[in-house]
């Protein structure tokens, strides 16, 4: 992915306008783990959401291979988002009341796969992340580490090329944070491109991370 002079202004044209991203240009290499690091409010989540097609830049260009995402109409963007990206959020965002299996299968429904194949894929992921015995559990019964692994499985259900994780260790203790980086290593080994925002040293000092990009006040200041 390539970002070229990307800006994001919230509430543009109003007295409370805020320039959260100010002229970011960078390249995210495939099959690598890239960490966006920076203080709270530096613009990490804002940048991540534009990269993941969850929001659009105010100006500038974002390329995915030879496609320019920033100029695509919404329906194409939604399609690219579903096929290309898997998301892992800070609060895991699992749906309470649904089982582990149901949560994992949810992002696949808009792509209308055959149900039997989808279920097999979901069980394959549960097996890989040592969660098979929890398949029918409601997600609210899970421990923090289990919930995190369910969130990873859900992000992988559509076999995305790029995984985006926003502060993934914020709700994990040190041991589970190291375990999470072990899981990231495995995903890198199978060829995924991974982009993580974090101000947790367990993440940005991890040997699994290929590159750390530092943000300050919406600008790249290092990496
Ligand atoms: N929807 C919005 N409207 C107005 N301002 C916003 C909006 N979203 C974010 N901001 C502001 O943009 C700046 C960057 O926010 P962002 O969430 O990207 O920071 P961050 O580096 O991810 O912070 P944290 O580490 O605390 O999650 C902050 O000053 C924030 O208040």
Q: What is the CATH architecture assignment? A: 3-Layer(aba) Sandwich
Number of helices: 7
End-to-end distance, in Å? Answer: 16 Å
Radius of gyration: 18 Å
Anisotropy-based shape: globular
Output the CATH class name.
Alpha Beta
Tell me the total number of β-strands. Answer: 10
Average pLDDT score = 93
Which stretches of 5+ consecutive residues score pLDDT under 50? none
Bound molecules: adenosine-5'-triphosphate
CATH homologous superfamily name? P-loop containing nucleotide triphosphate hydrolases
GO molecular function: ATP binding; ATP hydrolysis activity; transmembrane transporter activity
InterPro entries: AAA+_ATPase, ABC_transporter-like_ATP-bd, ABC_transporter-like_CS, ABC_transpr_LolD-like, MacB-like_ATP-bd, P-loop_NTPase
Protein name: ABC transporter ATP-binding protein
Organism: Sedimenticola thiotaurini
Which key phrases capture this entry?
223 residues, alpha/beta, Rossmann fold, 6-stranded mixed β-sheet, 10 strands, binds adenosine-5'-triphosphate, transmembrane transporter activity, transport
Task: Give structural notes.
The protein has a single domain (2-90, 153-222), classed as Rossmann fold (3-Layer(aba) Sandwich), CATH 3.40.50. Helices cover 32% and strands 25% of the residues. The protein is built from 7 helices and 10 strands. It has helices at residues 44-51, 74-84, 100-105, 115-128, 144-156, 174-189, 201-204; strands at residues 2-10, 18-27, 33-37, 59-64, 67-68, 85-88, 162-166, 193-197, 211-216, 219-222. The strands form 2 sheets. Strands 6-7-8-3-9-10 form a 6-stranded mixed β-sheet, with helices on both faces. A 4-stranded antiparallel β-sheet has the order 2-1-4-5, with helices on one face. The structure holds adenosine-5'-triphosphate. Adenosine-5'-triphosphate (ATP) binds at residues 10-11, 18, 20, 38, 40-46.
